[in-house]
Design brief:
Shape: elongated
Number of helices: 9
Radius of gyration: 21 Å
Length: about 260
């Protein structure tokens, strides 16, 4: 097998910028098709069930252990100052604003994004996407729009679920470890949290969901190199979505602090 030519740094940068530009163009086309009928409700329901319901176990496990760990850690440090009874106030803000949306996006999003890239990549290398075009259908409307909209619905929903599960797990562990009653924990949480804290986490989930859906679809539709290329695309999807989630989280947090 001939060795792949080594690209210079400038060529690699140009290649990345071209890919970024192509993805931005595809995203614009997807958004324009998403708001114009006809709508494929059946495909949307199918992908929402496929991506969301099957991701619930990993979302539940992640949020449970996140709630347990941060409650233990905050309880430990607050106990040094004799104010461990305020642990519910800290845990609820940490979960609602940061941990629940970000951890859900990193764990569930990696599964969803790589799955979409693998599915569409297999369709691309077996020329099924070309067959859709040959039949006069639009691959973006038929394949991409339902998946991106499903991600837009699934990630915020799983984020809300992670909020609830993480909070319950945290209340349980501080009750057992530090003897803090459930009433004190949840009353402190309710006294501290505002609707804006909850909404900012849900908005993050929606942005993360759209990002994961677009990256997965783009990598799947631009696969080259047969089955080896499909594997490479899934790996790149996980890496790109993880970095994108962290970047988006920073900018959304920065903006939300000024609102």
């Amino acid at each position: 097998m001939p060795a792949e030519p080594t690209l210079s740094i400038g060529a690699r940068v140009r290649q990345r910028l071209e890919a970024l530009g192509a993805m931005v163009v595809m995203s614009g086309k997807v958004f324009s098709r998403a708001v114009r009928p006809p709508y494929d409700w059946g495909a949307l329901v199918f992908h929402t069930e496929s991506l969301g319901v099957r991701s619930m176990p990993i979302a539940l496990l992640t949020s449970t252990f996140a709630g347990l760990v941060i409650s233990l850690q905050f309880g430990f440090f607050l106990a040094r100052f004799g104010v461990q009874y305020t642990v519910g106030r800290v845990v609820v803000l940490t979960l609602f604003r940061e941990l629940a949306p970000v951890l859900t996006a990193l764990t569930v999003g990696a599964r969803i994004g790589s799955g979409i890239a693998a599915e569409l990549g297999a369709m691309t290398v077996t020329e099924q996407v070309d067959a859709i075009r040959a039949l006069g259908a639009d691959p973006l409307r038929k394949l991409v729009v339902p998946r991106v909209l499903a991600c837009l619905l699934v990630l915020p929903t799983l984020t809300v679920l992670a909020d609830v599960i993480g909070l319950v797990a945290g209340a349980l562990v501080v009750n057992l470890q530090y003897g803090i009653s459930f009433d004190m924990f949840f009353q402190g949480a309710l006294d501290t949290v505002f609707m804006s804290d909850f909404v900012s986490g849900v908005i993050k989930g929606a942005v993360f969901g759209v990002t994961i859906g677009l990256v997965g679809c783009f990598k799947g539709l631009t696969v080259e190199g047969g089955t080896e290329g499909v594997g490479r695309a899934t790996t790149q999807t996980v890496a790109i979505t993880s970095v994108s989630v962290c970047l988006a989280d920073f900018f959304i947090t920065k903006i939300s602090l000024y609102l």
